[in-house]
Write a structure and sequence with these properties.
The protein is mainly beta and 118 residues long. Strands 4-3-2-1-9-8-7-6-5 form a nine-stranded antiparallel beta sheet, with no helix packed on it. A hairpin with a 2-residue loop joins β2 and β3. The protein is globular. 20% of the residues are buried.
């Protein structure tokens, strides 16, 4: 009976995504320049919402956010030099660290390494 209860509990936890709710700070190397970005996430079941901010591109709202186990994905729209572009984030959380691959214009991929702040 105890084994069954433990398996049911483990299964219930695996149905929900990683708890990434809170504030995360990340950095990426773009052409030899370090870019910083702050992420504020909210998780409701498998739905990921929130916003992200950087000095270079300002504040953006997450759209199409999803959490699946330790994997998460979302899209943001940024304005750079009077042009709007969509950036697609796909990441994996491990404890208090998070790594994103970000696809942008022309298929170029940028990697963000993040740490939980709160």
């Amino acid at each position: 009976m105890k084994l069954m209860l433990m398996l049911v509990t483990l299964f219930a936890f695996s149905m929900f995504g990683a708890d990434v709710s809170g504030t995360w700070k990340g950095t990426a190397d773009i052409g030899g320049n370090t870019i910083e970005r702050t992420f504020v996430f909210k998780v409701d079941g498998a739905k990921l919402t929130g916003e992200t901010t950087s000095e270079m591109m300002g504040k953006s709202t997450l759209t199409d956010g999803k959490v699946d186990g330790d994997n998460l994905s979302f899209t943001i729209t940024v304005k750079f030099q009077d042009n709007e572009m969509k950036l697609n984030y796909k990441g994996k959380v491990s404890g208090n660290t998070l790594r994103f691959d970000v696809e942008g214009v022309g298929g170029q991929t940028v990697v963000y390494n993040c740490k939980r702040v709160s």
